[in-house]
Amino acid sequence: MLRECKRKDIYQGSFKKGVDIIAGLMQVTKERGFTAGIISGIGAVTEAHIGYFKAQTQKYEVRFRENMEIFSLRGNAATFSPTST
Predict the structure, then answer these.
(1) pTM recorded for the entire structure
(2) b/e 22-32 (16+ beta carbons within 10 angstroms → b)
(3) Which domain, by its residues, includes 7?
């Protein structure tokens, strides 16, 4: 669900329970034709993948499977369309 706020360049929305945040954002981006933006949010998840580099194991991803609150979700997004020159 997405609604346009009074300013034409700000949108607010929510996802139904069980929707993957990244997949949901990608779908909204495609449907609305967004090419770039800033994302912020709060909410809750039942599973999370957090990527960070741990030198000892040479791994990037950690998975949590439990109910958790998101008190700050921040990021940016842009579409990338390679062109040949």
Answers:
(1) 0.68
(2) eeebeebbeee
(3) 2-78
